[in-house]
Task: structure prediction
Amino acid sequence: MNKIDSVVGKDQSAFGFLRDTEYPVSPVRVGIVGVTGIVGGKLLEILKEESFPIKKLRVFASAKSESTFLDSPFGVLPVEILNPRQVPELDLVFMAAGTAIARSWGWRFARRKTLVIDKSSYFRDKSYAPLVIPEVNESDLDSSQFIYANPNCATITIVHALKPLHDQFELRSFTAATYQSVSGAGLKGVQAYENEISGSSLDSSPFPERIIGNVIPWIGDSDEATSDEEKKVISESRKILSLPRLPIRVTCVRVPVLTGHSVAISADFRRSVDLDKAKELLAKFPGVELIDNPHDSEFPTPLKAMGTNKTFVGRVRLDRGKRGLSLWVSSDNLRKGAAFNAVQIAQKLLQRRKF
Amino acid sequence: MNKIDSVVGKDQSAFGFLRDTEYPVSPVRVGIVGVTGIVGGKLLEILKEESFPIKKLRVFASAKSESTFLDSPFGVLPVEILNPRQVPELDLVFMAAGTAIARSWGWRFARRKTLVIDKSSYFRDKSYAPLVIPEVNESDLDSSQFIYANPNCATITIVHALKPLHDQFELRSFTAATYQSVSGAGLKGVQAYENEISGSSLDSSPFPERIIGNVIPWIGDSDEATSDEEKKVISESRKILSLPRLPIRVTCVRVPVLTGHSVAISADFRRSVDLDKAKELLAKFPGVELIDNPHDSEFPTPLKAMGTNKTFVGRVRLDRGKRGLSLWVSSDNLRKGAAFNAVQIAQKLLQRRKF
Result:
């Protein structure tokens, strides 16, 4: 995928502002906080792939990486430690370091007019922070705010697939069951998966039970009957779709897959659904790829999605008379579910702002 | 689990006929067709565990096992080949050899008054063949028929969990997404899984794509948008629950788990659901075990279910006002999902018949 494709998507008319905007803009000073994490590393990879207009790149991690160097697609970079007495001067910072860093550093950057794109859940429910999947609710980027939140990886997979259907048929409710990969739990998740495969120690696993040869129906903790991950899917989907009372039933499940989240979705609509029209809308929606010929083994899988920036949709079928549609979605949780979506937000913001 | 428990279940009152029946009955002549398959082997194991009253045991397989011997829990057994000119004289035969053998051999046995319990899908939709999960619809065994069908493994897992809720709150519809293990595809599925782990050839895999590190949303073939497995869940659930028009939306998915099927279910009911009552009904229902304390990692998983004869239910939570309930179910697809359920049917039939 070249840069222009990724910005414009397939349907250029939906992105008409591009015609009035110079692109690329002048290069900017970029920071990545949490660069040693799995999403941090993926951000570097995607910024390079997308030829993001970078004037200066600085990367940050926790104190245990002090005085180390990172071999990156941009050459060897010194890893810096954030210091509240010397807030770095940046135009744009990607934060992928969890909620504690988001809380303490988000506004430090924003107060200095650094655009913040945060991957943690900390800002997602804040009314001032746009929560954006660019293909879905790009207009929410028309904000004077400096803090933007990147949605949860499962949320992105679900909402990206439902949006074209909602636009046409008006979503009434949906039920989803997820099949989420271990890399959604970060490097610790990947390490636990690899340790279990090789038969070594399970001491540091972030999972409550063995994950190889198993599935675990509980992601993120919670004192309630609903897991944290399920709460995120519910509240974020409602916010992104501007449907604050949308009924959502979701079960979030970890599966022994390295990378790639999948979701079985059954949705109900207010208008009668035409199956061919639904497939046509999905096929032409920016960032979505329809793979739907199951008797020839053509359906989305996490293996097919891994390493791509697309949301793959298949198994599209009518039910509940013509008011329901079931579908199956897979996407790379580190790319479209995280780093690629964050870079897309950055690309859109650059087009909107002067530096 | 001792034999009486497995027959009587937890709620003895529901099995009152036992008081009028001598148990165990006199030993019978038993056959297993398809003994070299994965369910055939599990049948031998469970017949032994259950101290099934066997007078004579004969085992059958396809021609490629001719003149071989099987090391079984009942000692070394000669493997026989079925011959239409010499139909074996048996009181009871378990058939676990696919639809073609069921079609050609089911009535040959039945005409000779041999009770047939068939594991394939061939008889399941036949109106004359009771399709039975003993804890759910035992009364369907009150039949003069000789052919009985064992339901699909995913169907058993789902319907066993829904039955106590349906009895109290009246099921209106349900949506299910399955997480089905490779042993559901038989020995070939297990071999493909083990070959992929060890990195050897994938030539004979029954799966349309790699299964290790992947999930595959298509089980059984079909020319339609709905897979064969999904059609089975829909038609069998309706038959077992005697709800011929029950709306069911299901997505059947293969996951890299050796043994143990799991299902995320969201159900709607006609009556208002009381959560505590729902949990109480599940906890005391025969064959069901409630594991529902997720913050302490207490939820069903296929690893917990493997090797047991129970249907484990957890993650029980209200939604859709009080008309909806979501839950998560795991059970051993080779045991409660197949061989154990078949042996339970046989136990019940023995109590009903004279030999």
